[in-house]
Amino acid sequence: MTATEVSEAAREIEKLLALHPKGFDLSLDRITRLLAALGNPQERLPPVIHVAGTNGKGSVTAFCRSILEAAGLSVHVHTSPHLVNWHERYRLGVKDGKGALVSDPVLADAVRRVAEANGGQKITVFEILTAVTFLLFAEHPADVAIIEVGLGGRYDATNVIARPAVSVIMPISLDHQAYLGDRVELIAAEKAGIMKRGCPVVIGHQEEESAREVLIETAERLGCPTSVYGQDFMAHEEFGRLIFQDENGLADLPLPRLPGRHQYANAAAAIRAVRAAGFDVPEPAIEKGLAGVEWPGRLQRLAGGRLSHFGPPGAEIWIDGGHNPGAGHVIAEAMATFEERDPRPLFLIIGMINTKDPIGYFKAFLDLTEQVFTVPVHGSDAGLDPLALAADAAAAGLEANAASSVAEALGQIAELTDEDPVPPRVLIGGSLYLVGDVLAENGTPPR
């Protein structure tokens, strides 16, 4: 299926989008009612690794999947949002293989059955799609299911899992304040809502001490066996290798395939989560998993495709869907690392939606980037006007100009660097919607 084809499943979901309100309405009442009408498929899942956090959810999910599959286990994976096609949200595991995105007929059938069970009652489309996750994962056997939280934790539609094999809380920072609170400790309390009494918990690296304290206190109150990054496990680079350490000793591993120093802590959280969930994965499988991990749209390098023809010859083009100040910090750190190893002028092409903090994101790139080009986000009706976004970039201290498209921005960068001896590095990001637009336009959707 190409990015331009309209699938049967997409048509079914579009019907639901026309019928039900967009966005989130945080509550477990509707999803609980719907799942009961479906025979409670969430009670028939394989062991579940449940993942929450502001940043790093997708990366730790990808690491867990890669490690478990390298050990020969079949792994179901639920993530959101998708980048290009709805099918990306549902990966069905197969024994001794990498699994595959759900086929279109299977997804379309599941969506129809869930919608029929709902009977037109008030609900959000995200809740229907979450029920589809549970239905698919219950009807297709697998050894483990990795389920990523959509928003928050306590009242997220995925939080109907009574006994997860492990709950994983990744880095927490300010995001979705209208739903989760305007202080990081309030957001941490919401995300800690996925912890279940007596079930193992893994707490990933936390920049904010107040968030870390809330998570640890909640886990202790619930009697959860708890592993905390920097206390019970950790990882660092040494001589081009990743050194992972926990109470079992040291493991000398390859650096993760996903670029950026922040991925060391994400990989460590995944290793710890797999072990805490009860999977005795041998070290060669961990090595294979780190070396083979894939996570589209997160510090992904565009190698070819239609858009690359608009940019400067020899340019290094990266895409990343990070969209909050915390994500801006780790992406900027990655760009600085690239600069140390291979100096190139850096240009940003950024599009964002109106629920984010553009100035906080842009500040992370001070003294790193030559210029910012702001572009519209076509995949969301909440996209910020490029002129307003350019003003935000300027307020953060960056030189910025608005462009009508990514292709136009790449063309302008090509003109600016035409006589430069070193081709530039370009980062396209600020929104997963924009990254999805880019992958679709480039002709390289996730598989």
UniProtKB/TrEMBL annotation:
It catalyses: (6S)-5,6,7,8-tetrahydrofolyl-(gamma-L-Glu)(n) + L-glutamate + ATP = (6S)-5,6,7,8-tetrahydrofolyl-(gamma-L-Glu)(n+1) + ADP + phosphate + H(+). Belongs to the folylpolyglutamate synthase family. InterPro entries: Folylpolyglutamate_synth, Folylpolyglutamate_synth_CS, Mur-like_cat_sf, Mur_ligase_C_dom_sf, Mur_ligase_cen. One of its GO terms (biological process) is tetrahydrofolate biosynthetic process. GO terms for molecular function: ATP binding; dihydrofolate synthase activity; metal ion binding; tetrahydrofolylpolyglutamate synthase activity. Residues 51-273 form the Mur ligase central domain. Keywords: ATP-binding, Ligase, Magnesium, Metal-binding, Nucleotide-binding. GO terms for cellular component: cytoplasm. Its EC number is 6.3.2.17. Its cofactor is Mg(2+). This is tetrahydrofolate synthase.
